[in-house]
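Annotated sample (chain length 141).
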Amino acid sequence: MPPIDINKGLCNLCEICIKKCPFDAFEIKDGKLTINEKCTGCGICIKNCPTKALSLLFRPKRKKPSDLDSYRGVWVFAEQSHNCIASVSFELLGAGRALADKLGVELCAVLLGSGISKMEKELASYGADKIYEIDNPLLKD
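Output written by the structure step:
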């Protein structure tokens, strides 16, 4: 059951809720507005409904991760441009290294781009324990 209620008498099918919903939870079926299982109850639709046809029935409970130990580590986004790592990334790795050591966790660097495989060693030399590299031609620019 979706957490949003639709007052069919007030809804004029203006489709503003469809356009504003970031989860694509609304659709019109058989001339009526419906909500599917993608609805998270975020309330954006309620704020934007000009006829006040939408209301929150209940706030959905967020699922808690079962194993919090899998959410460990300090991550640094290694900014690069034209296959050169920005100096701020090295500064962040230095601060991240201190924090990771204090917490007793790994320091991870995230590197996005195209043709960036040569940069891994440089990031490792600045203290990254792990490097997550996403190398794809679509990320060239």
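Annotation: The longest helix spans residues 87-103.
Annotation: Residues 97 and 107 are 6 Å apart (CA to CA).
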